[in-house]
Write a structure and sequence with these properties.
451 residues, alpha/beta, Adenylosuccinate Synthetase, Chain A, domain 1, Adenylosuccinate Synthetase, subunit A, domain 2, Adenylosuccinate Synthetase, Chain A, domain 3, ten-stranded mixed beta sheet, four-stranded mixed beta sheet, 14 helices, 18% strand, binds inosinic acid
């Protein structure tokens, strides 16, 4: 075993409610890694990839795929909709990105069937005002089938006849549930099976047992980047349940998803925005339902990559961030979209949750009824009111913006090692002099020279 593999790997996760800008960070860093692994969720996630002068969206395939020396793996903890993955392969082909021989799919991931999507939407409809605000991609129902031990798994894509028989049986059950539970119309099975047949033909060749392959890469001294989807506060166990996704977004889930030792994961980079956003329903103590929230949404272009929904916006929530850092063992933070706050005269940070009896909570309570009662305590800082856009050096940061970053570091308790000041690769600053900062600075330098 290579003794240095811990240092060479990195796990990048979302530290808030998703949409923190993981796509940009992973894209920026991934040419410096030989292997990129996505370990949770499905096509509920989404990121825009900027490649040469082209832009396109990926939902399942890691953006590392655009670098031809990078191998990409999709872990067993994921839920895979075959037609969504096929559509991404089409996009890659149209963009002249060849994936053959370097994109692999775990043989144990759960398959999303068209009926899962129908159940997701019927259940959300039936929940009415109590809906979760899911992405409607069938994520929850597919994970539910996995837990119920009746799911179809990716190894079946290599055995189309057996797969289609099993899919017909399971989708027949789903159609009965759609009718009985929700009075919803059935999914047309012949059409669904035809889509699945095409999916199996195209995806079967990508299916592998991935754990041994990832261990082999790491043991050969290759660098592995593990990429989490969504964020700590959407984690099925530790997020704001039930307003969460159905998978674990924490770094430990990467080891589980790939069936490898947690030793392989390396340091944890928590990606956070300089403010906070959330899509879908659920508690959001620092939410701004005013003009400032509107400005953040507009300047930050806060509309979902997957569903186009406007994102709710609010101040940076240091209570939630401390909780996320603790829960996920975050070693350092990449702070995104600092430039979006450039024109604010004053910025606030939530530093405590005050209960009606005056006590101040310093954690995310498990009970959402308690969370609904808290009044956020904020601290105000002067805005920097000048452009941070395009800055490339930490020393060029305006003093008030730097004061904001230092305030957040003190609040959150870990260093901010990357600062993003715009959507482009070169609008990124490596900060500080820790080993991780230096490693990231090196990676950024390599990647910024790529086009
Ligand atoms: P689901 O994952 O589609 O079941 O949605 C459950 C919750 O997670 C909803 O609030 C979604 O808006 C949210 N969610 C799921 N994926 C993402 C993501 O990639 N970014 C942000 N929110 C997400």
């Amino acid at each position: 075993m290579n003794a240095n593999h811990e240092v060479k790997s990195l796990t990048a996760i979302g530290g808030q409610w998703g949409d923190e800008g993981k796509g940009k960070v992973v894209d920026l860093l991934s040419s410096g890694f030989e292997v990129v692994v996505r370990y949770n969720g499905g096509h509920n996630a989404g990121h825009t990839v900027c490649f040469a002068d082209r832009r396109f969206a990926l939902h399942l395939v890691p953006s590392g795929i655009i670098h031809e020396n990078v191998s990409c793996y999709l872990g067993a903890g994921m839920v895979i909709d075959p037609s969504a993955l096929c559509a991404e392969l089409d996009t890659l082909t149209a963009e002249e990105v060849r994936h053959e021989g370097r994109l692999f799919l775990s043989d144990r991931a759960t398959l999303i069937l068209p009926t899962h999507q129908a159940i997701d939407n019927a259940r959300e409809g039936a929940r009415g005002k109590g809906k979760i605000g899911t992405t409607g991609r069938g994520i929850g129902p597919a994970y539910q089938d996995a837990a119920q031990r009746r799911a179809l798994r990716t190894f079946m894509l290599t055995q189309p006849a057996r797969f289609l028989d099993a899919a017909r049986d399971l989708m027949t059950e789903h159609n009965r549930e759609l009718d009985v539970l929700f009075g919803a119309p059935p999914v047309n099975l012949d059409e669904a099976l035809e889509t699945l047949r095409t999916g199996a033909e195209r995806l079967g060749p990508l299916v592998r047992e991935i754990g041994p392959k990832i261990i082999e890469h790491a043991d050969q001294g290759q660098q592995v980047l593990f990429e989490g989807a969504q964020g700590v506060l959407l984690d099925i166990h530790h997020g704001t349940y039930p307003y969460v996704t159905s998978s674990s977004c924490l770094p430990g889930a990467a080891a589980v998803s790939c069936a490898i030792s947690p030793r392989y994961l390396g340091p944890v980079l928590g990606i956070m925005k300089a403010y906070v956003t959330r899509v879908g329903e659920g508690p959001f103590p620092s939410e701004l339902e005013d003009e400032v929230g509107e400005r953040l949404r507009e300047r930050g272009n806060e509309f979902g990559t997957t569903t186009g929904r406007p994102r709710r916006c609010g101040w940076f929530d240091a209570v939630a961030a401390r909780y996320a850092v603790r829960a996920a063992g975050v070693d350092a933070v990449a702070l995104m979209k600092v430039d979006v706050m450039d024109d604010l005269a004053e910025v606030e940070v939530v530093v405590g949750y005050e209960l009606p009896d005056g006590r101040v909570l310093d954690t995310m309570p498990a009970d959402l009824e308690v969370l609904a009662q808290v009044r956020p305590r904020t601290e105000k800082l002067p805005g920097w009111q000048c452009s941070t856009r395009d800055l490339k050096e930490a020393t060029a940061m305006p003093a008030r913006a730097e004061a904001y970053l230092r305030f957040l570091e003190r609040q959150v308790g870990v260093p901010i090692v990357l600062v993003s000041t715009g959507p482009r690769r070169e609008e990124t600053i490596a900060r500080g002099d820790s080993d991780l900062s230096k490693q990231l600075a090196g990676l950024i330098e390599t990647n910024q020279s790529l086009e």
